[in-house]
From TrEMBL:
GO terms for molecular function: delta(3)-delta(2)-enoyl-CoA isomerase activity. InterPro entries: ClpP/crotonase-like_dom_sf (IPR029045), Enoyl-CoA_hydra/iso (IPR001753). This is Enoyl-CoA delta isomerase 1, mitochondrial. It catalyses: (3Z)-octenoyl-CoA = (2E)-octenoyl-CoA; (3Z)-dodecenoyl-CoA = (2E)-dodecenoyl-CoA; (3Z)-decenoyl-CoA = (2E)-decenoyl-CoA; (2E)-tetradecenoyl-CoA = (3Z)-tetradecenoyl-CoA. Keywords: Acetylation, Fatty acid metabolism, Isomerase, Lipid metabolism, Mitochondrion, Transit peptide. GO terms for cellular component: mitochondrial matrix. It is found in: Mitochondrion matrix.
């Protein structure tokens, strides 16, 4: 049914090669020949932390799907326990200035592409989904999650502030009051809590069940003319996308200022240590 890599993810562009990156394939795209629905799988082990390369490859994959007029897209993970651990902290810890700049601009681009894509989008959340992982999930139109995992914007717990477009995405997903509580507490919801608060739409018993449910959700649009569908979606979403488009540089500078603050660097160092110690 789903043929692997029918839509090839392009290798990294030249401007990334200058950082000495190898063009490993962190994203797999497979398309169902019959329905035209694509499954986009993040496969950057161990936790799909979003580094520059994964972000760039995701953006390329989503844009390719747009160009190829795909019928729907399901975003999921190759890991059995993590959807995405959010932004790769190593991109922000003692960063190379040119790379960290590119990193943030690429993340902005990815969000604008995913949030504003014309095709129906579903996150099949088959593992933990904190911070940037939650942002990706919320940017889709529908979320299906497996039990016993967590999801949320936990930035305040890390001593940082979620950028305004993360906040807008959460507010648009669960409403002002619940977003305010969740963001100020840096709350990570369990699957059950996420369902209750409306952060996810359905619970699935397995990844296969999540994909089947996602296919069913997308299938509903077969009878809806695509143009009115897309225009309606963008009427709801384009204001926040345009806000970021207009303030990209300002947002970048705010990010760079925070990242380059010695206090942030110390915080990131301690957090990385705490992640490693959890294992010991
Ligand atoms: C006024 C306007 C100001 C604007 C300023 C903007 C500033 C905003 C800046 C940043 C925004 C950030 C958003 C983010 O996304 S930050 C990332 C937040 N992510 C997390 O907190 C998740 C951390 N990870 C975990 O909780 C767990 O790893 C989990 C995802 C639950 C998976 O657990 P488990 O399966 O047990 O795996 P391990 O913890 O053992 O991890 C395996 C290895 O992966 C490393 N790891 C984990 N997460 C990350 C990460 N996000 N980045 C980099 N590396 C990560 C972990 O250390 C292990 O490494 P190793 O095997 O070497 O020990």
């Amino acid at each position: 049914m789903y043929s692997r890599t029918m839509l090839k993810v392009r290798t990294l562009s030249n401007n990334l090669k200058m950082y000495g990156s190898t063009s490993s394939n962190f994203v797999n795209v497979s398309v169902n020949d019959k329905s035209g629905v694509a499954i986009v799988t993040m496969q950057r082990e161990p936790v799909n932390s979003l580094n520059l390369e994964l972000i760039t490859q995701l953006k390329t994959a989503l844009s390719d799907l747009e160009r190829n007029k795909c019928r729907g897209m399901i975003l999921t993970s190759a890991s059995k326990s993590v959807f995405s651990a959010g932004l790769d902290i190593m991109e922000m810890y003692k960063p190379n200035q040119e790379r960290v700049r590119n990193f943030w601009l690429s993340l902005q681009d990815l969000w604008m592409t995913l949030y504003g894509c014309s095709y129906p989008s579903v996150a099949a959340i088959n593992g933990h989904s904190p911070a940037g992982g939650c942002l990706l999930s919320m940017s889709c139109e529908y979320r299906i999650m497996l039990p016993n995992f967590t999801i949320g914007l936990n930035e305040t717990k890390l001593g940082i502030i979620a950028p305004s477009w993360f906040v807008a995405t959460m507010k648009n997903t669960i409403g002002f009051r619940k977003a305010e509580m969740a963001l100020t507490l840096g709350f990570l919801f369990t699957t059950e809590e996420a369902l209750k608060v409306g952060l996810i739409d359905e619970v699935a018993s397995s990844k296969e069940d999540a994909i089947a449910k996602a296919d069913k959700f997308i299938g509903q649009f077969a009878k809806i003319p695509p143009q009115p569908r897309t225009i309606s979606k963008l009427m709801l979403r384009s204001k926040d996308i345009e806000t970021l488009r207009k303030t990209k540089e300002q947002d970048l500078q705010a990010f760079l200022q925070v990242v380059n603050d010695p206090k942030t660097q110390k915080g990131l160092e301690l957090y990385l240590e705490s992640l490693k110690q959890r294992k010991a």
